[in-house]
UniProtKB/TrEMBL annotation:
InterPro entries: GH, Glyco_hydro_17, Glyco_hydro_17_plant
GO molecular function: hydrolase activity, hydrolyzing O-glycosyl compounds
Composition-biased stretches (Polar residues): 266-277
Listed SUPFAM superfamilies: (Trans)glycosidases (SSF51445)
Lineage of the organism: Eukaryota, Viridiplantae, Streptophyta, Embryophyta, Tracheophyta
Name this polypeptide is given: Glucan endo-1,3-beta-D-glucosidase
Alphabetical list of Pfam families matching this protein: Glyco_hydro_17
Biological processes annotated in GO: carbohydrate metabolic process
Gene3D superfamilies: Glycosidases
Signal peptide: 1-25
Alphabetical UniProt keywords: Glycosidase, Hydrolase, Signal
Species this chain originates from: Perilla frutescens var. hirtella (Perilla citriodora)
Region described as Disordered: 265-286
Family of this protein: Belongs to the glycosyl hydrolase 17 family.
Length: 371
């Protein structure tokens, strides 16, 4: 009996490793570093290479990680620290120095994006400085001759929307028009996507009565018809709500020439910059959510489990191969959050359980990265 059990465990481990060793395609993994038990940057990059993970999101420059990425084929979305945004906005020379220090110094790192801030609250003291920082960063990237390779954007939360149901009626909060409209105009004129963190988990725990767990976990055959349009999963619905909101803002906006750019429609779509489901930590509603995605009523069971995290993450990597009802021909790009659990991350307990690997490098659950 013991021998048989050992054989089963070995077979499961082999399947787990085999399933991870597949080309990533449009899926990357965020490298969050808020932990005191994480492996070194060199070991982490080696893990990306071992499992053929081709994209990384790094939230701030980190010299050991940039050095470890040199010469690899891992595409990097590099973040700007919140503490740098004010100076980047007010002093163009700071943006030039930032690009020199964090980009040009690493010519063999495959940079793809720069995210100026992650989920900055527009009403915070940093809110007014996000766009000027983006503009100065873009100019610095352009002056370095890298604007064709590196896109400059910012990452937002979906709670900037006033309305998300039905998805076709998605709208940003009117009170935030001063913030979001100039950013979207800038992104349109630089042919860049808005980065959006899409978390069906948060939508679900805030409205369990009206959102079915299977719909939130992106399970096959769990779709619903929303205002005459069939949605296979909640992720698609959230992406389309953001894209509808973007289109509404830009519909009457003329192209800008403030950066000396060639006018054009540009890229008016969003791009998923992170998503996942926590594997532990419970979950409590953090505020009222818009009612709408009715597909049944779930029991008040524990939802932050390893099994649900496995289901969500694997389904996410499956569905990004296809477009949404609003943009059926567009492959989605997203980054799984995160590589490891981060035991020093603030907030509710579940915030510290989003990792897909344990700190020792073992996968938390079987994953399959799709082409």
């Amino acid at each position: 009996m013991a021998t048989s059990a050992s054989a089963v465990l070995l077979l499961m481990l082999f399947i787990m490793i085999l399933s991870l060793h597949v080309t990533v395609g449009e899926v990357g993994v965020c490298y969050g570093r808020l932990g005191d038990n994480l492996p070194s940057a060199e070991a982490t990059v080696a893990l990306y290479k071992q499992y053929n993970i081709k994209r990384m999101r790094l939230y701030a420059p980190h010299i050991p990680t940039l050095r470890a990425l040199a010469g690899t084929d891992i595409g990097l979305m590099l973040g700007v620290s919140d503490t740098d945004i004010f100076e980047l906005a007010n002093f163009p020379a700071v943006a030039t120095a930032w690009v020199c220090t964090n980009i040009l110094r690493y010519p063999t790192v495959m940079f793809t994006d720069i995210s100026v801030g992650n989920e900055i609250d527009p009403e915070s003291e940093l809110g007014p400085f996000v766009l000027p920082a983006m503009q100065n960063m873009y100019r610095a990237v352009r002056d370095a001759g890298l604007e064709a390779k590196i896109k400059v954007s910012t990452s937002i939360k979906t709670d900037l929307l006033r309305k998300s149901y039905p998805p076709q009626a998605g709208e940003f909060k009117c009170s935030l028009n001063w913030y979001i409209r100039p950013i979207l105009e800038f992104l349109r004129d630089t042919d860049t996507s808005l980065l959006v963190n899409i978390y069906p988990f948060f939508a679900y725990i805030n409205d369990r009565k009206n959102i079915n767990l299977s719909f939130a976990l992106l399970q096959p055959n769990s779709g619903v018809v929303i205002d005459g349009v069939y949605y296979d999963n909640l992720y698609y619905a959230m992406v389309d709500a953001v894209d509808a909101a973007i289109d509404k803002v830009l519909a009457a906006s003329p192209a800008l020439f403030s950066l000396g750019l060639k006018a054009g429609r540009g890229n008016q779509n969003s791009k998923g910059s992170e998503s996942n489901w926590p594997s532990a930590g419970g979950g409590k509603p953090s505020g009222a959510a818009e009612v709408g995605y009715t597909a049944g009523l779930d029991n008040d069971e524990e939802v932050t489990t390893i099994e649900n995290a496995r289901i969500y993450t694997n389904n996410l990597m499956r569905i990004v191969k296809h477009g949404t009802p609003r943009n059926p021909g567009r492959r989605l790009e997203t980054y799984i959050f995160a590589m490891f659990d981060e035991n020093q991350k603030p907030g509710p307990e579940y915030e510290r359980h989003f990792g897909i690997f344990y700190p020792d490098g073992k996968p938390k659950y079987p994953l399959r990265f799709y082409n």
